[in-house]
């Protein structure tokens, strides 16, 4: 906090005041929530959330005395659309959105404008600086070892060339919004595909959480990580796997009975969508197969189209699944 206060004091001495503060520092932390160290979560919140709050608190006395000023913070559409492996990052941005919304209401009587920049995809060094280590998920000990490639894809998704904008172009969008006559809007979207992801976030929150959830689970490689695989697929390196070769005492233990019951329920819900049948089943396995797109079974059913998108068929038939997420998405 001392370094922030010192910087504000120096600006006031040299310029006589502070007209605009833009809180743009940020880091990305990608990984399954249960396998991200608490220290890493705290570091992410410290940079993305507390860092912005420190800057706002340091500049507020100057701006309230001036009765003018603009505080802008770089949020993210990830605060609206929460995906697997990005829970920590989404939480930090959701906290930013909440506290700066409150700050906007509190500073309005003093003539200070507060804006949240809902950023989509733009080019930066955030992927290089996120400290992501794929080997952590490929060593066989992770619950998500089979989805390691999907996790890595999510870590790099924000820098995909087709859907992201250059930083200079995004800066022009931000400057245009902040310089609007009458003051900047409370929130505004910038960068690539921001509207698309905000729409998905709206659907996830208010319309059909389960539908969007199925799309995201399949897109992120989670559809195959059910207990059916835990019980039947060989995974000698995975220390957490329980095989059917339990001892009598293990099978009769409360944990064993519970897992067997849960296993039966999930397999019942999965149906025959991932078997060599007609690709017709219930639950998440319904309609998955090798059609024109990419499926997970050998039956006839709707599959996914190629690309970064994620679609899900719900019935029989051959066909090419339509992407529900664009190929080069970033949020």
Q: What characteristics describe this protein?
A:
Rossmann fold; alpha/beta; 4-stranded parallel β-sheet; about 45% helix; 11 helices
Give the helices and strands, then pairings:
Layout lengths: L1 H14 L4 E4 L14 H29 L2 E6 L12 H21 L4 E8 L15 H4 L9 H9 L10 H12 L8 E4 L3 H14 L1 H11 L7 H6 L15 H5 L1 H17 L61
Parallel strand pairs: 1-2, 2-3, 3-4
Helix pairs in contact: 1-2, 2-3, 7-8
CATH level 3 topology of the domain at 2-219: Rossmann fold
Q: Give the overall pLDDT as a whole number.
A: 73
Head-to-tail CA distance between termini: 29 Å
Helix content: 40-55%
Q: Enumerate how many helices there are, as a single number.
A: 11
Helical/strand content category? alpha/beta
**CA radius of gyration:** 24 Å
Main beta sheet: strand number and arrangement? Answer: 4 strands, parallel
As residue ranges, the low-confidence spans are 227-246, 269-330
Shape: elongated
CATH class of the domain at 2-219: Alpha Beta
CATH architecture of the domain at 2-219: 3-Layer(aba) Sandwich
Helix and strand element order = HEHEHEHHHEHHHHH
| Widest sheet, order of strands | 1-2-3-4
β-strand percent reads: 5-15%
Oligomeric form of this entry? Answer: single chain
Structure characterization notes:
This protein is α/β, with parallel strands linked by helices. The chain has a domain at 2-219: NAD(P)-binding Rossmann-like Domain (Rossmann fold, 3-Layer(aba) Sandwich), CATH 3.40.50.720. It has helices spanning 2-15, 38-66, 87-107, 135-138, 148-156, 167-178, 194-207, 209-219, 227-232, 248-252, 254-270; strands at 20-23, 69-74, 112-119, 187-190. A four-stranded parallel beta sheet has the order 1-2-3-4, sandwiched between helices. Helix 1 runs parallel beside helix 2, helix 2 runs parallel beside helix 3 and helix 7 (194-207) crosses helix 8. The radius of gyration is 24 Å and the shape is elongated.
């Amino acid at each position: 906090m001392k370094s922030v206060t010192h910087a504000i004091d120096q600006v006031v001495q040299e310029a006589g005041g502070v007209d605009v503060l833009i809180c743009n520092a940020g880091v990305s932390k990608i990984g399954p929530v249960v396998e991200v160290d608490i220290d890493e979560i705290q570091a992410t919140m410290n940079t993305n959330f507390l860092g912005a709050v420190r800057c706002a608190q340091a500049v507020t006395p100057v701006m309230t005395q001036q009765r003018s000023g603009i505080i802008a913070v770089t949020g993210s559409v990830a605060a609206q659309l929460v995906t697997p492996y990005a829970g920590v990052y989404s939480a930090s941005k959701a906290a930013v959105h909440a506290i700066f919304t409150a700050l906007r209401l509190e500073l309005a009587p003093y003539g200070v404008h507060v804006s949240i920049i809902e950023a989509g995809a733009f080019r930066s060094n955030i992927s290089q600086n996120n400290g992501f280590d794929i080997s952590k998920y490929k060593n066989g000990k992770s619950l998500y070892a089979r989805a390691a490639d999907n996790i890595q894809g999510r870590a790099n998704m924000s820098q995909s060339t087709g859907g992201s904008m250059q930083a200079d172009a995004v800066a022009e969008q931000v400057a245009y919004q902040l310089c609007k006559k009458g003051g900047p809007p409370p929130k505004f979207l910038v960068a690539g595909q921001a509207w698309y992801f905000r729409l998905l976030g709206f659907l996830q929150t208010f319309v059909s959480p389960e539908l969007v959830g199925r799309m995201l689970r399949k897109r992120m490689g989670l559809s195959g990580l059910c207990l059916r695989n835990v019980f039947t697929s060989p995974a000698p390196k995975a220390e957490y796997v329980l095989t059917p070769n339990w001892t009598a005492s293990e099978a009769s233990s409360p944990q064993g009975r519970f897992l067997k019951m849960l296993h039966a329920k999930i397999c019942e819900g999965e149906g025959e969508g991932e078997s060599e049948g007609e690709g017709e089943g219930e639950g998440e396995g319904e309609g998955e197969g090798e059609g024109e797109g990419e499926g997970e079974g050998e039956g006839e059913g709707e599959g996914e189209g190629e690309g970064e998108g994620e679609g899900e068929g719900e019935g029989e038939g051959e066909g090419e699944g339509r992407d529900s997420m664009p190929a080069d998405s970033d949020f």
